[in-house]
Amino acid sequence: MPKKTNAPFLLSPTGKDYLWGGSRLKTEYNKRFDLSPLAETWECSTHPDGPSCVSGGEYAGMTLAALLAARPELLGTRHPDGELPILVKLIDAAAPLSVQVHPDDAFAAEFENGSKGKTEMWVVLSAEPGATLVYGFTRQVTPDELRQRIRAGTLEEVLRFLPVKAGDVILVEAGTVHAIGRGILVAEIQENSNLTYRLYDYNRRDKTGALRPLHVEKALRVARLGPAALPETAGDDPGDLGGCEYFHVRRLSPENGEITLPGREDSFAVLLCTGGCGRLKSAADVLSLEKGGCAFVPAGAGKLVLSGPGEFLEIVC
C-alpha cells in the first residue's frame, strides 16, 4: 500500500449498454467505451455490478471498493461501517426506460439478502423539447387494475407524465413508480443499490431476442399506488438542490472565479463536472476535471479551491 494521504483523486467509471441508451455520453461527456449503445456510466461506485476505479495518483488502478476497504477512514466518521452509501451515475435515455419502482431499505433488507433500498435524485442535464418523466399515477389505482393494464398494454393511461427541462431536479423516493423518458440525460445520485422492479417495458426484447423480465408482484408490494407529490428539494440557496437522509447535493458554478470548499473531517464528498471544465486544488495536488469527470474528495482532505469555467455537482453524505 502506498503512503497514506487524503488528497482528492479522479475516478473512472463502468459503462452499461442497456438497450434504451444512446451515444451522447461518448460524444458530449468524453466517455471512452466501445459499448453501443452507452446507456449509463457508474461514476462513483463500489457496487459489484459496476465498480469505479481510481484513475491517477498514488492509488491508480485500484477499485474504489478495494481502496475504501483498505482505508475506510477516507469516508469519514459519519460512516464507521466503511461502506460507501451512494452511487453516482450519468444516464442517457435515447428511448424510455422501463416503468419501474425501487424498494425501501426495510423491504430490501428482509427480502433481498440484506441489500439496501433505493431512493434516488435526478438532476436533468439536458432534455429534448416535449420530454417527460413518469412520476407516479394520475389517480389512485389498485393492484388488480395494474395487473390488467400491464397485460393489456394500457398502463400508460394512468401514469403521470411530468414535463422536464435542463436544470430540473427530481427526488424519487423508494416506492415511487417512475421512468426516465426519451431524450433526457441526467446525473443520478442514489443509494448504493441495484434493485429495480420492472412493472412495464413496452414489450421490448433484448439483444438475444428475449423479453426483458418483469417483477410485477414484487413491484406491487412496494409501490405507492396513487398520485405522487414532488418532494421539496431546494433550500434558500439557489445552488442548493436538496437531498434526503442519504445524500445532499449542491450545484457549483465557479465560472472564471474560484469557490473555496471547506475541509470536512466527518464525511467524504463527490464532485461531478456536468459542463465546461475546472481545476480542484488541494494542499497536495491539482486535479483537472473535464465535462463528465468525477472526483472523490476524502474526509480530511482539507480546504479545497475549485476554479472554472465549469458546472459541478457536489454530493455530500
Structure description:
With 317 residues, the protein is mainly beta. It folds into two domains: 9-222, Sandwich (Jelly Rolls); 240-316, Jelly Rolls. Helix content is 11%, strand content 34%. It is built from five helices and 21 strands. The chain has helices at 24-27, 64-70, 105-111, 143-152, 216-222, and strands at residues 9-12, 14-16, 40-44, 53-54, 86-93, 99-101, 120-127, 132-137, 159-163, 169-172, 178-179, 184-191, 197-200, 240-243, 248-252, 258-261, 269-281, 286-290, 294-297, 304-307, 310-316. The strands form four sheets. Strands 1, 4, 14, 15, 16, 17, 18, 19, 20 and 21 form a ten-stranded antiparallel sheet that branches. A six-stranded antiparallel sheet has the order 2-3-5-12-7-10, with no helix packed on it. Strands 9-8-11 form a three-stranded antiparallel sheet, with no helix packed on it. The protein starts with 8 loop residues before the first strand and ends with a strand. The model has no long low-confidence stretch (mean pLDDT 95).
Helix content: 10-25%
Question: What is the annotated CATH architecture of the largest domain?
Answer: Sandwich
CATH superfamily of the largest domain: Jelly Rolls
Number of strands: 21
Entry summary:
By secondary structure, this protein is mainly β.
Secondary-structure blueprint:
Elements lengths: L8 E4 L1 E3 L7 H4 L12 E5 L8 E2 L9 H7 L15 E8 L5 E3 L3 H7 L8 E8 L4 E6 L5 H10 L6 E5 L5 E4 L5 E2 L4 E8 L5 E4 L15 H7 L17 E4 L4 E5 L5 E4 L7 E13 L4 E5 L3 E4 L6 E4 L2 E7 L1
Antiparallel strand pairs: 1-4, 1-19, 2-3, 3-5, 5-12, 6-13, 7-10, 7-12, 8-9, 8-11, 14-15, 15-21, 16-20, 17-18, 17-19, 17-20, 17-21
